[in-house]
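Worked example 3 (structure in, sequence out).
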Protein backbone atom coordinates (compact mmCIF):
# COMPACT_ATOMS: atom_id res chain seq x y z
CA UNK A 1 0.00 0.00 0.00
CA UNK A 2 1.50 3.28 -1.06
CA UNK A 3 1.65 6.43 1.02
CA UNK A 4 -0.50 8.17 -1.59
CA UNK A 5 -3.47 6.28 -0.20
CA UNK A 6 -5.07 7.55 2.99
CA UNK A 7 -5.28 4.52 5.28
CA UNK A 8 -7.61 3.86 8.20
CA UNK A 9 -6.74 0.96 10.51
CA UNK A 10 -9.25 -0.03 13.21
CA UNK A 11 -8.85 -2.39 16.15
CA UNK A 12 -12.01 -4.18 17.29
CA UNK A 13 -13.17 -7.15 19.36
CA UNK A 14 -14.80 -8.18 22.62
CA UNK A 15 -14.25 -6.09 25.74
CA UNK A 16 -11.18 -7.08 27.73
CA UNK A 17 -9.24 -8.80 24.95
CA UNK A 18 -6.51 -6.14 24.80
CA UNK A 19 -7.63 -3.88 21.95
CA UNK A 20 -6.09 -0.83 23.59
CA UNK A 21 -2.78 -2.63 24.15
CA UNK A 22 -2.67 -3.73 20.50
CA UNK A 23 -3.57 -0.21 19.34
CA UNK A 24 -0.80 1.27 21.49
CA UNK A 25 1.82 -1.17 20.18
CA UNK A 26 0.82 -0.44 16.57
CA UNK A 27 0.82 3.31 17.21
CA UNK A 28 4.25 3.18 18.78
CA UNK A 29 5.86 1.19 15.98
CA UNK A 30 4.27 3.08 13.08
CA UNK A 31 4.93 6.50 14.63
CA UNK A 32 8.57 5.57 15.31
CA UNK A 33 8.99 4.55 11.67
CA UNK A 34 8.60 8.16 10.53
CA UNK A 35 6.71 6.98 7.43
CA UNK A 36 3.34 8.49 8.29
CA UNK A 37 1.53 11.52 9.61
CA UNK A 38 -0.69 9.71 12.13
CA UNK A 39 -4.04 10.50 13.73
CA UNK A 40 -4.97 8.20 16.61
CA UNK A 41 -8.64 8.09 17.64
CA UNK A 42 -9.65 6.58 20.96
CA UNK A 43 -13.25 5.59 20.15
CA UNK A 44 -13.52 3.36 23.22
CA UNK A 45 -15.73 5.05 25.87
CA UNK A 46 -13.35 3.85 28.61
CA UNK A 47 -10.71 6.20 27.14
CA UNK A 48 -7.67 4.28 28.41
CA UNK A 49 -5.54 4.80 25.33
CA UNK A 50 -4.03 8.17 26.40
CA UNK A 51 -2.67 6.59 29.60
CA UNK A 52 -1.23 3.62 27.72
CA UNK A 53 0.42 6.00 25.24
CA UNK A 54 1.65 8.34 28.00
CA UNK A 55 -0.40 11.33 26.80
CA UNK A 56 -2.38 13.64 29.08
CA UNK A 57 -5.82 14.59 27.73
CA UNK A 58 -8.15 16.92 29.64
CA UNK A 59 -11.13 17.15 27.28
CA UNK A 60 -12.89 14.71 24.98
CA UNK A 61 -15.21 14.91 21.99
CA UNK A 62 -17.95 13.67 24.35
CA UNK A 63 -17.47 16.78 26.49
CA UNK A 64 -17.84 18.99 23.40
CA UNK A 65 -20.95 17.11 22.23
CA UNK A 66 -22.54 17.35 25.68
CA UNK A 67 -21.91 21.09 25.80
CA UNK A 68 -23.51 21.64 22.39
CA UNK A 69 -26.54 19.49 23.19
CA UNK A 70 -27.14 21.36 26.45
CA UNK A 71 -26.93 24.67 24.59
CA UNK A 72 -29.40 23.45 21.98
CA UNK A 73 -31.79 22.15 24.65
CA UNK A 74 -31.72 25.49 26.50
CA UNK A 75 -32.06 27.53 23.31
CA UNK A 76 -28.75 29.26 24.07
CA UNK A 77 -27.19 28.41 20.70
CA UNK A 78 -27.35 31.25 18.21
CA UNK A 79 -29.15 30.34 14.96
CA UNK A 80 -26.61 32.54 13.15
CA UNK A 81 -23.78 30.15 14.11
CA UNK A 82 -23.19 26.98 12.07
CA UNK A 83 -23.38 23.96 14.37
CA UNK A 84 -20.90 22.11 12.20
CA UNK A 85 -18.39 24.97 12.22
CA UNK A 86 -18.77 25.32 15.99
CA UNK A 87 -18.18 21.60 16.58
CA UNK A 88 -15.33 21.49 14.09
CA UNK A 89 -13.50 24.35 15.81
CA UNK A 90 -13.94 22.68 19.21
CA UNK A 91 -12.70 19.33 17.89
CA UNK A 92 -9.56 21.00 16.57
CA UNK A 93 -9.09 22.71 19.94
CA UNK A 94 -9.09 19.40 21.86
CA UNK A 95 -6.94 17.55 19.33
CA UNK A 96 -3.80 16.59 21.26
CA UNK A 97 -0.63 17.05 19.24
CA UNK A 98 2.49 15.07 20.14
CA UNK A 99 5.85 14.86 18.33
CA UNK A 100 4.95 11.44 16.84
CA UNK A 101 1.17 11.49 16.34
CA UNK A 102 -2.01 13.45 17.04
CA UNK A 103 -4.62 12.02 19.41
CA UNK A 104 -8.38 12.56 19.54
CA UNK A 105 -10.32 11.02 22.42
CA UNK A 106 -14.03 10.43 21.85
CA UNK A 107 -14.99 9.82 25.50
CA UNK A 108 -18.58 9.66 26.73
CA UNK A 109 -21.53 12.00 26.41
CA UNK A 110 -23.38 12.98 29.58
CA UNK A 111 -27.06 13.05 30.43
CA UNK A 112 -30.13 11.93 28.57
CA UNK A 113 -31.48 13.12 25.28
CA UNK A 114 -30.96 12.60 21.58
CA UNK A 115 -27.48 13.16 20.25
CA UNK A 116 -28.40 12.17 16.68
CA UNK A 117 -27.72 15.58 15.12
CA UNK A 118 -24.50 16.06 17.08
CA UNK A 119 -23.25 12.53 16.33
CA UNK A 120 -23.96 12.88 12.61
CA UNK A 121 -22.06 16.17 12.52
CA UNK A 122 -19.16 14.66 14.45
CA UNK A 123 -18.96 11.68 12.08
CA UNK A 124 -18.55 14.03 9.11
CA UNK A 125 -16.03 16.21 10.96
CA UNK A 126 -13.86 13.25 11.96
CA UNK A 127 -14.06 11.85 8.42
CA UNK A 128 -12.83 15.21 7.15
CA UNK A 129 -10.14 15.45 9.84
CA UNK A 130 -8.73 12.00 9.07
CA UNK A 131 -8.18 12.96 5.45
CA UNK A 132 -5.43 15.31 6.64
CA UNK A 133 -3.32 12.34 7.74
CA UNK A 134 -1.58 9.51 5.92
CA UNK A 135 -2.81 7.03 8.51
CA UNK A 136 -5.64 6.99 11.05
CA UNK A 137 -5.51 4.36 13.81
CA UNK A 138 -8.74 3.74 15.73
CA UNK A 139 -9.25 1.91 19.01
CA UNK A 140 -12.91 0.93 18.64
CA UNK A 141 -15.48 0.37 21.36
CA UNK A 142 -16.14 -3.24 22.36
CA UNK A 143 -18.59 -5.41 20.46
CA UNK A 144 -20.76 -4.66 17.46
CA UNK A 145 -22.31 -1.24 18.12
CA UNK A 146 -19.87 0.70 15.97
CA UNK A 147 -20.65 -1.54 13.00
CA UNK A 148 -24.42 -1.31 13.37
CA UNK A 149 -24.08 2.49 13.46
CA UNK A 150 -21.87 2.38 10.34
CA UNK A 151 -19.02 4.31 12.00
CA UNK A 152 -16.52 1.91 10.42
CA UNK A 153 -17.47 2.40 6.79
CA UNK A 154 -14.18 3.95 5.67
CA UNK A 155 -11.86 1.48 7.39
CA UNK A 156 -9.24 -0.10 5.11
CA UNK A 157 -7.80 -2.59 7.60
CA UNK A 158 -9.81 -4.09 10.47
CA UNK A 159 -7.98 -6.05 13.15
CA UNK A 160 -10.20 -8.42 15.15
CA UNK A 161 -8.49 -9.00 18.49
CA UNK A 162 -9.34 -12.05 20.57
CA UNK A 163 -8.00 -13.48 23.80
CA UNK A 164 -7.85 -17.25 24.44
CA UNK A 165 -11.61 -17.55 25.00
CA UNK A 166 -14.62 -18.91 23.17
CA UNK A 167 -16.42 -15.57 23.49
CA UNK A 168 -13.46 -13.67 22.06
CA UNK A 169 -13.54 -15.81 18.92
CA UNK A 170 -17.35 -15.63 18.73
CA UNK A 171 -17.31 -11.83 18.89
CA UNK A 172 -14.73 -11.71 16.09
CA UNK A 173 -16.97 -14.00 14.05
CA UNK A 174 -20.08 -11.88 14.67
CA UNK A 175 -18.26 -8.66 13.77
CA UNK A 176 -17.22 -10.27 10.48
CA UNK A 177 -20.78 -11.47 9.78
CA UNK A 178 -22.35 -8.12 10.65
CA UNK A 179 -19.88 -6.24 8.46
CA UNK A 180 -21.04 -8.33 5.52
CA UNK A 181 -24.71 -7.86 6.43
CA UNK A 182 -24.46 -4.06 6.48
CA UNK A 183 -22.18 -4.07 3.41
CA UNK A 184 -19.04 -2.66 4.99
CA UNK A 185 -16.25 -3.62 2.63
CA UNK A 186 -13.01 -3.74 4.58
CA UNK A 187 -10.05 -4.19 2.27
CA UNK A 188 -8.35 -6.45 4.81
CA UNK A 189 -9.64 -8.30 7.88
CA UNK A 190 -7.13 -9.95 10.21
CA UNK A 191 -7.57 -12.07 13.33
CA UNK A 192 -5.09 -11.15 16.07
CA UNK A 193 -4.59 -13.41 19.08
CA UNK A 194 -3.54 -11.56 22.24
CA UNK A 195 -2.07 -13.14 25.40
CA UNK A 196 -1.99 -16.55 23.69
CA UNK A 197 0.41 -19.41 24.39
CA UNK A 198 2.68 -19.88 21.38
CA UNK A 199 1.57 -23.49 20.90
CA UNK A 200 -1.97 -22.23 20.08
CA UNK A 201 -0.93 -20.66 16.78
CA UNK A 202 -2.13 -23.56 14.61
CA UNK A 203 -5.53 -23.48 16.32
CA UNK A 204 -5.81 -19.70 15.86
CA UNK A 205 -4.96 -19.97 12.17
CA UNK A 206 -7.72 -22.55 11.80
CA UNK A 207 -10.21 -20.24 13.57
CA UNK A 208 -9.29 -17.40 11.20
CA UNK A 209 -9.96 -19.69 8.25
CA UNK A 210 -13.31 -20.76 9.72
CA UNK A 211 -14.37 -17.15 10.29
CA UNK A 212 -13.30 -16.21 6.78
CA UNK A 213 -10.58 -13.68 7.63
CA UNK A 214 -6.82 -13.66 7.29
CA UNK A 215 -4.62 -14.78 10.15
CA UNK A 216 -2.65 -11.84 11.50
CA UNK A 217 -0.41 -12.84 14.37
CA UNK A 218 -0.32 -14.32 17.84
CA UNK A 219 0.89 -11.91 20.53
CA UNK A 220 2.21 -14.04 23.38
CA UNK A 221 1.75 -13.29 27.05
CA UNK A 222 4.48 -10.73 27.68
CA UNK A 223 5.66 -10.07 31.23
CA UNK A 224 6.89 -6.61 30.27
CA UNK A 225 3.44 -5.61 28.96
CA UNK A 226 1.78 -6.99 32.10
CA UNK A 227 4.23 -5.08 34.32
CA UNK A 228 3.82 -1.80 32.42
CA UNK A 229 0.01 -2.05 32.48
CA UNK A 230 -0.04 -2.96 36.16
CA UNK A 231 2.26 -0.11 37.16
CA UNK A 232 0.78 2.47 34.79
CA UNK A 233 3.93 2.79 32.69
CA UNK A 234 3.17 3.78 29.07
CA UNK A 235 3.72 1.02 26.52
CA UNK A 236 5.80 3.51 24.55
CA UNK A 237 8.52 2.74 27.10
CA UNK A 238 8.57 -1.02 26.44
CA UNK A 239 11.97 -2.48 25.49
CA UNK A 240 12.38 -2.89 21.73
CA UNK A 241 13.18 -6.59 22.12
CA UNK A 242 10.16 -7.54 24.23
CA UNK A 243 8.08 -10.34 22.60
CA UNK A 244 4.91 -8.25 22.06
CA UNK A 245 6.82 -5.50 20.24
CA UNK A 246 8.70 -8.02 18.10
CA UNK A 247 5.50 -9.86 17.15
CA UNK A 248 3.58 -6.72 16.18
CA UNK A 249 6.60 -5.39 14.27
CA UNK A 250 6.73 -8.62 12.24
CA UNK A 251 2.99 -8.42 11.55
CA UNK A 252 3.14 -4.79 10.39
CA UNK A 253 6.08 -5.70 8.15
CA UNK A 254 4.09 -8.62 6.73
CA UNK A 255 1.15 -6.39 5.78
CA UNK A 256 3.58 -3.79 4.36
CA UNK A 257 2.93 -0.96 6.79
CA UNK A 258 6.52 -1.07 8.05
Amino acid sequence: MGLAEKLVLAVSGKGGVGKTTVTALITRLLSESGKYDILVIDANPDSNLPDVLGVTVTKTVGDVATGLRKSLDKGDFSPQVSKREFLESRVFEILKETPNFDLLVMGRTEGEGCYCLVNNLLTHIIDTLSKNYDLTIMDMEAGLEHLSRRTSRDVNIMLLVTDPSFMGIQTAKRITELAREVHIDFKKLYLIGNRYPKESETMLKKKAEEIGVEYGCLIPTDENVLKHNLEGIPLTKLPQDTPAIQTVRNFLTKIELL
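Notes: The first helix runs from residue 19 to 33. The chain has one domain: 7-58+98-112+134-254.
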